[in-house]
Amino acid sequence: MNDDSGWSATLIASKTGQKMGSSPPLPIRCGPCEKFWRFFEFPFLSSSPGGHSPHPLLASNERPQKFSTGGPPALKLPAYILVCIPSENERVCLEVRNLHREFLRAGSDVMQAFTFYASDDKLINRGNEAGIKYTGSDINEAACRIAREVANEGDALVAGGISQTPSYLSGKGKKSVQDEFRKQVQVFVNNKVDFLICEYFEHIEEMEWAIEVCRETSLPIAATMCIGTEGDLHNVSVGECAVRMAKAGAHVVGLNCHFDPFGMLKAIAAMKKSLETAGLKPYLMTQPLGFHCPDNGKQGFIDLPEFPFALEPRVCTRWDMQRYAREAYELGVRYIGGCCGFESYHIRAVSEELAKERGKQPLSSQKHDPWGEGLKMHTKPWVRARARRSYWEDLQPSTGRPHSAAFSKPDNWGVTAGSDELKQQAESTTNEELQKMFAYNSKS
Ligand SMILES: [Zn+2]
């Protein structure tokens, strides 16, 4: 037990639930992960003057504490080390909670539970084992609980979201698709979320089915599609989609994901016009990408060759986000957020731009001066000269990539629902199937 391998063995033993020795202290709940403190026995360690200090891995865990049985050190009486060793799931919960917290401090008024794509049919699609290991309900339940815990720290709202399903793309029909939605919505109702979001739909028909299920509750409904100025994947215009979402019963309508902030605002303007013509007045909502994608096609950034793992050169600056927030507000959008690529500092930029309208600054602005004014204390004089709005507002940032083109060539896949490639299957994609897919990348 007194060498490093002994520590490892003990650690493994604790993870598998084995306990060594007898009469360990009673387990107590852990504050951060709210599970329980695991305990195990390390004879000779804390009570021996020549004993090892805690293993670095253990020392890095949450709230390590040592308990000695007392007595003369020379007797080397057993000691118990009570230490929280979160399981992988518990660690993920902690990280999710901290992610919510980061956005709360950046000014988010809504904690959107991480329930995106968490329908049972998606969680068993193409080798995904999440639906077998857990269930959609378990995942949605945990997401709601964590979102509420953090929301309560800052008086924020909690929203539960449903999104497009593999069942729709597989052509399984209205009942199957709505059954998937209903299971998620039931969890949201049980967890008393403040409102529902139907997001990331690219077929207005599926969106209407989703809103219909949400209307079985008494909760407010926000509905956003991941489409642009070219309309949905069945060629229904973006304006018509807005009208159909409002008529289906959504209280807030708009767009999310797939398009950059400024491309999205163009589509929102078209939605607004159609809604006004139809005499409808729902609230408007935007949750664009945090990437510049003026070159994307109808399916947005997923058609870009850089999607999803090489998009970083396209990241918007905080100043881009201030411009987005102002333009969205002036267009009449009152639910202004972000989707893929948005980091918490982007949300802080949105919050700071609209601080006057909202009557408050985000918490994290306590350590962030507006428009680079914190640079007044910079050592270098030419950097101090950047402590002003006009510098950052007028800047045209370089990419630092001499071989980069300004635009990429999108794949323009163009397939909607019902094609063989889009059908749901539990089995992982085979190498042979993958080979066939390669052709899509080379056709553009
Ligand atoms: Zn997104």
UniProtKB/TrEMBL annotation:
Domain Hcy-binding span(s) in chain numbering: 45-354
Pfam families attached here?
S-methyl_trans
The Gene Ontology terms for molecular function here are: betaine-homocysteine S-methyltransferase activity; metal ion binding
Q: Keywords on this record?
A: Metal-binding, Methyltransferase, Transferase, Zinc
| Cofactors named for this entry | Zn(2+)
Hey, which pathway is this one from? Answer: Amino-acid biosynthesis; L-methionine biosynthesis via de novo pathway; L-methionine from L-homocysteine (BhmT route): step 1/1
Stretches for region Disordered: 395-433
Q: Which InterPro entries match?
A: BHMT, HCY_dom, HCY_dom_sf
PANTHER family per the UniProt record, alphabetical: BETAINE--HOMOCYSTEINE S-METHYLTRANSFERASE 1, HCY-BINDING DOMAIN-CONTAINING PROTEIN
Quote the protein name from its UniProt record.
Betaine--homocysteine S-methyltransferase 1 like protein
Which source organism?
Argiope bruennichi
